[in-house]
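Supplementary Data S3. Sequence and C-alpha cells for construct A.
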Amino acid sequence: LETRGYGRLPVIDRKTGKLAGIITKSDIIEKLLHKTELDFQEEEIRRYRASHFFDDIIADSTRLNFLYQIRGKTIAEGGVVASSLKKTLKRLGIHPEVVRKTVIAMYEAEMNVIIYAKEGAARVTVDPRSIYVEIEDHGPGIPDVEEAMKPGFSTAPEWVQELGFGAGMGLQNIKMSSDEMTLSSVLGKGTLLKLTFVMENTNEVERNRRKTPA
C-alpha cells in the first residue's frame, strides 16, 4: 500500500454508505497473521486427533474399514483410489514409509483392475499394527498366476501399451511393496488380491531403506 502512496484506507459502511473508520497496513497484516495462526492451530488439532485415533479409543479390538469402488476401462481415473487412500492414511498419522508402500501397491492394483476388468473394489482395513488391503475385480481372470508373477510378463492390450502402461511390472511392484501378498483368480469370474502392510518397526525399515544404495 505504501509503495503506491496509500498509507491508510477508508472503511465504508455498506448499508449507510458512511465512513465507518480507517484501516492501515498494520491492521491488515495483524488480521492476516491472526487468521493464519488460527488455521494452523486448527490443522494441528485435527492432525493430533487423527494420529491418536487408536490411542483414544478404549476397546479390546479397534479397526477402521474403507471401501473404494474402481471402474474398469477408465484410464483417465487411474490413481484416484490410490490418491484418496494416501490422504486418508496420512490423516490417520500412519508412518510415511508405510503410506508410501501401501500407495504404490494400491496404484498398481488399481490400474490392473482398470485395464483388465469391468469393475472392482478395494477394501482397506487399518488397525494399530497393520494395514490390510483386498482388491477384487469382476474380470476375465488370470489363466496362469505363476506366469503372471514373472517380471515383464504382460497381456495388456495394444491400446494400453500405447499409453505407456502394461509393462509387466505391476505385480512385481506390488509384491516388493507389501509385507504379505496372496493372489488368486478364477477364469471368467475375476481376481482377488490380498495384501498386508505391517506398521511395527517402521523406523528400522526407514533406516534400512536410507542405507540401501540408489
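Construct B, processed identically:
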Amino acid sequence: MAWRGASGNGVAFIGPIVFLGGLLLLITSILEFILGNTFPCVVFGTIGGFWFAFAATMIPSFNAAAPYSSTAKDTAAGLSSAGFLNTYAFLFITMAVLMLIFMICATRTNIVYTLIFLSLMIVFLLLSSAYWLLGEGSAATGDRCVKGAGASLFVASLLGFYLLIVQLFEALDFPFHLPVGDLGVLWTRTPHKGQKHDIEEGAAVGDN
C-alpha cells in the first residue's frame, strides 16, 4: 500500500518471501500430509510454491524478467516492461481461480478460513488487473489496483494471524476459545455404504 514510501514490487522482501513464505509453507504442507490433512496440505503447498515462484522471478540469476528488457540483461527493467507485465498477469489469474476453489472448500470449516481465501482471491484479481493496466501504460489506475491488492492482503494477513492465535491458544490449552465461526454444522453428508468417513472433515469440525 506504499506506506512509508514502500515500493520496488516486493524486491526488498525476497529473503522473507523465500524462507518465511515458500520454505516454511512447504514444510508445513509436508507435515499436514503426514497428518493426513489433505486440504491444508494442498493449500500450504500451493501458496508456498507461489511464493517460491514469485521470488525466483525477481532474482536475477533465474533470468526470468531480464529477457524482457531492451538489453536482455536488466532484471529491474524487465520487471516493469509491458511484455513481462502482460504475461505475468496470467499467473495471478490462475492463483485467483485456485483461491476461489479453496474458498468454496473452506466453507466446510469456518468463517475466518473462508474470508482469508476471499481476501486472497481479491488480491490476485487486483494484481492481474494492475499488471495489465501497467502494461498498457495506465500507471495511475494500475498503481491504485496494486494498493487495493495490498489492502486486501493486509486483511488476509490479519485474519491469518487471528487464526494462528486461535490455534496456539487451543494447543496450549487456554481456558477459553476465540470464535472462528464454525461452518461445519451447515453441512450434512451421510457417507455411502462402505465408504469411510472423511477424517479431515471430522477434524475440521472438531477443531473449530
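The helical segments are 14-35, 38-58, 75-79, 82-106, 111-135, 139-171, 199-207. Residues 193-206 have pLDDT under 50 and may be disordered.
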